[in-house]
């Protein structure tokens, strides 16, 4: 790099040196020029292909690396779906392939790759070495303007028209404000260290500063008390104080990198390693690690200017690739109206905190930072999973009308707070609330719900880095019962495993269908200690009052009996020692597995209540993954097949004089709730936001006429039940919003 000569000559030397060092037959550099990835230098491929072979970003393995910004490591290149053969390169003889992106400011300027004749998987150290070289190349490429970043930025800036971006609702709500980028990208100007000891000292000082910042955040009054927030921040702190992380950064410095370059290299490597695990828990924790690495990079470079540090002065919607929980806490709540993430997840720590803080959040909006400019006016519509960028006046008017309508409806629902959910013909319907976080409990007072029909206990397990201790579980369950103030609370035992993976409870065999795999009660019955500890915590928390306990994912009656036996063993222990205990225990089952419908004759005599979990049950009935967006609108939840199955279950429970309820998204949708009431359901457990709308539906419905209609509709072989229910609602004056 420091030698005189043309850039082409330098790159030719680079590929030759890498090929020799790695004993590789091929080393090539592709650079992004005029929108194409152009072969700029090679050792091993045909020299006639240099500046001739060009690949689109959507083309070939090289395009895959540049497009995704992540390495590829392939023992057999041709087996990859993106492999594209270019005869002019003369690469017919080569099998293995490894490539890394040449990144600057978060964008790929090109790709550095190697190839071997023999099939082989490259070692981690080799990939890391390529990444280090790519960082150095990025500096040289930027300085020599081989890739015209200005033209890329100009093309981006030309996109100034109104745009609607679709995303995934992480926290519901409406927000309006100007776009503020969470952080300007730290551009690493120098990658090669002049004084290794000085670089190590800079990193040590940066770690001390970062850890002190995190300690201060954890002492904030708003989140200083016990609860899920405390556990989230403790996990975050654990990552920050991990000595292995600082050791890897120091090792990178010893290889010749500056502190900034070493932090970024370790961050890139960690990101790739964690994504390759395919473990949902580690994918969620990747957000926290990215947050910490970016924070450390800003400290060591002396550029602490995130939007939180510079301060917000007007209503703002924050834009970020990802956001860590500590970073969200730094923002001024007076002006932060919404958050938009390029990635994000419903179970990420930052999402949990945003929900607790009441901040609407959209995630998984690809390339949002490429479309949105600092200061752009934005409208965030969580109910429609949409972000409107530079909205046209008519869109703004429509959004304002939406806000006004929502406020008007909320006022109407508030007036119903103290009125009972009674139909026009005098039938009382229980409207209960779903919960899973301590912060959800305030919804009981806001809505005056009849109780908590489903408390998901697994959330405490998902946000913790280790198995929650019995004392911590007892504190949570006690707080829930205290907040309920005598109203019934139904605790569902922990539903983890499968797609809700936790690091301290791993299954030996990878699962292709985790939703139908080793999860929920199946885990608890195999790891009996898990259910024993939770049962004891629930019994202790409910001492002196009734305990309502529900087991998830029951497939056969013997599973319920085995789970109840574990609870009764713990109860017997308390009795034998004269310790406080619940006044009574009501046992129930969440019905999610269709096969259980045909074993209810054996199950119902032994349970006190049955709760139908429509989210999982319907996806199993339809063989349609509810998280797959391509299937989201394909099947109707009020189709005759689904409703006939539900009626079969409901009729059995009612005949056995067992309380049957529905908890899940279906019960919180007005039209679907009408269908369920017509099938004989008298208890719904739904989200806090759905209580008001469903109460309004109940108070305007005549149950006798509704049941007669449903019986007629289910008897017909061909009928559009949704259309018939809509017509019924219109005739009866029932608002389905």
The fraction of residues assigned to DSSP E strands is 15-25%
Query: What's the average pLDDT?
Result: 85
Oligomeric state of the chains in view: single chain
- Please give the domain count: 3
Count of individual helical segments: 27
Pairing-aware structural class of the strands and helices?
alpha/beta
Helix content: 40-55%
* Largest beta sheet: strand ordering: 7-14-13-9-10-11-12-8
Question: Ends: how far apart?
Answer: 65 Å
Largest sheet: 8 strands, mixed
Write the topology of this structure.
Blueprint: H1 7-21, E1 26-33, E2 36-43, E3 54-55, H2 60-68, E4 72-74, E5 96-104, E6 107-116, H3 124-144, H4 149-157, E7 163-166, E8 168-171, E9 174-181, H5 196-218, H6 228-240, H7 243-254, H8 259-277, H9 280-300, H10 307-310, E10 316-320, H11 325-329, E11 336-341, H12 349-357, E12 361-363, H13 368-371, E13 377-381, E14 386-389, H14 393-415, E15 430-435, H15 442-447, E16 452-456, H16 458-462, H17 470-484, E17 489-492, H18 521-526, H19 528-541, E18 547-551, H20 557-576, E19 585-591, H21 600-603, E20 609-613, H22 614-622, H23 640-655, E21 659-663, H24 670-679, E22 683-686, H25 688-699, H26 703-715, H27 721-732
Parallel strand pairs: 9-10, 10-11, 11-12, 15-16, 15-22, 16-17, 17-18, 18-19, 19-20, 20-21, 21-22
Antiparallel strand pairs: 1-2, 1-6, 2-3, 4-5, 5-6, 7-14, 8-12, 9-13, 13-14
Helix pairs in contact: 5-6, 5-7, 5-9, 7-8, 8-9, 14-25, 17-19, 19-20, 24-26
């Amino acid at each position: 790099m420091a030698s005189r000569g043309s850039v082409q000559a330098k790159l030719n030397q680079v590929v030759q040196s890498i090929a020799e060092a790695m004993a590789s037959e091929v080393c090539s550099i592709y650079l992004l020029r005029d929108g194409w990835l152009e072969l700029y230098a090679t050792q091993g491929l045909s020299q006639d292909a240099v500046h001739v072979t060009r690949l689109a970003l959507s083309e070939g393995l090289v395009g895959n690396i540049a497009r995704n910004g992540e390495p590829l490591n392939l023992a057999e290149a041709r087996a990859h779906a993106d492999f594209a053969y270019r005869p002019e390169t003369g690469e017919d003889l080569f099998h293995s392939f490894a490539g890394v992106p040449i990144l600057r400011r978060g964008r790929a300027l090109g790709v550095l790759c190697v190839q071997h004749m023999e099939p082989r998987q490259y070692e981690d150290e080799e990939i890391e070495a390529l990444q280090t070289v790519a960082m150095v190349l990025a500096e040289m490429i930027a300085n020599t303007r081989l890739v015209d970043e200005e033209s890329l930025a100009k093309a981006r800036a030309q996109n100034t028209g109104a745009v609607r971006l679709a995303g995934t609702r992480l926290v519901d709500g409406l927000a309006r404000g100007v776009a503020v980028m969470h952080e300007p990208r730290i551009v690493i100007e120098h990658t090669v260290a002049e004084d290794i000891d000085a670089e190590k000292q800079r990193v040590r000082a940066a770690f001390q500063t970062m850890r002190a910042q995190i300690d201060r955040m954890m002492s904030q009054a708003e989140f200083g008390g016990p609860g899920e927030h405390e556990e989230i921040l403790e996990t975050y702190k654990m990552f920050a104080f991990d000595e292995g992380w600082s050791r890897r950064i120091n090792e990178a410095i010893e290889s010749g990198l500056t502190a900034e370059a070493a932090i970024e290299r370790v961050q890139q490597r960690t990101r790739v390693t964690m994504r390759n695990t395919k473990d949902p828990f580690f994918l969620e924790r990747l957000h926290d690690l990215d947050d910490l690495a970016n924070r450390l990079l800003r400290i060591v470079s002396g550029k602490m200017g995130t939007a939180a540090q510079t301060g917000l002065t007007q209503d703002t919607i924050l834009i970020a690739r990802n956001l860590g929980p500590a970073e969200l806490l730094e923002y001024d709540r007076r002006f932060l109206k919404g958050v938009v993430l390029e990635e994000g997840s419903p179970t990420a720590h930052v999402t949990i905190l945003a929900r607790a803080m009441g901040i609407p959040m959209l995630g998984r909006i690809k390339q949002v930072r490429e479309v949105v400019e600092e200061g752009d006016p934005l409208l965030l519509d969580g109910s429609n999973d949409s972000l409107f960028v530079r909205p046209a006046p008519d869109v703004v008017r429509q959004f304002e009308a939406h806000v006004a309508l929502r406020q008007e409806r909320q006022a109407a629902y508030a007036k119903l707070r103290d009125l009972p959910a009674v139909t026009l013909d005098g039938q009382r319907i229980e409207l209960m609330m779903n919960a899973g976080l301590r912060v959800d409990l305030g919804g009981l007072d806001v809505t005056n719900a009849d109780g908590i029909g489903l408390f998901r206990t697994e959330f405490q397990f998902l946000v913790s880095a280790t198995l929650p201790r019995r004392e911590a579980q007892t504190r949570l369950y006690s707080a829930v019962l205290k907040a309920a103030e005598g109203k019934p609370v139904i605790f569902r035992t922990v539903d983890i495993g499968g797609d809700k993976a936790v690091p301290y409870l791993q299954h030996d065999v990878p699962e292709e269908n985790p939703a139908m795999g080793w999860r929920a009660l199946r885990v608890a019955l195999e790891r009996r200690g898990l259910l024993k500890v939770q049962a004891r915590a629930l019994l202790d928390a409910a001492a002196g009052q009734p305990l309502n306990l529900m087991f998830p994912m029951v497939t056969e009656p013997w599973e319920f009996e085995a789970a109840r036996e574990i609870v009764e063993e713990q109860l017997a222990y308390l009795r034998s020692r004269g310790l406080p205990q619940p006044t009574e225990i009501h046992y129930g089952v969440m019905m999610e597995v269709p096969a259980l419908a045909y074993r209810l004759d054996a199950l119902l005599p032994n349970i006190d209540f049955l709760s139908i979990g429509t989210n999982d049950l319907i996806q199993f009935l339809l063989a349609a993954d509810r998280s797959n967006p391509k299937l989201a609108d394909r099947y109707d939840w009020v189709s005759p097949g689904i409703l006939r199955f539900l009626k079969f279950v409901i009729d059995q429970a009612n005949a056995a004089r067992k309380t049957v309820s529905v908890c899940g998204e279906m019960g919180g949708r007005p039209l679907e709730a009408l269908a369920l009431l017509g099938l004989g359901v008298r208890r719904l457990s739904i989200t806090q936001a759905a209580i008001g709308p469903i109460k309004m539906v109940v108070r305007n419905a005549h149950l006798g006429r509704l049941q007669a209609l449903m019986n007629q509709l289910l008897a017909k072989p061909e009928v559009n039940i949704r259309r018939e229910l809509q017509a019924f609602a219109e005739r009866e004056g029932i608002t389905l919003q």
